[in-house]
Amino acid sequence: MAMKILDVPFSFTEWLKKPVQEHKGKTGTSSWRTFEKGNIRVRLVDYSEGFQSDHWCSRGHVLYVLKGELTVEMKNGQVHVLPEGTGFQTSDDKSNPHSVLSQQGARVFIVD
Question: Which domain does 82 fall in, by range?
Answer without folding.
Answer: 21-111
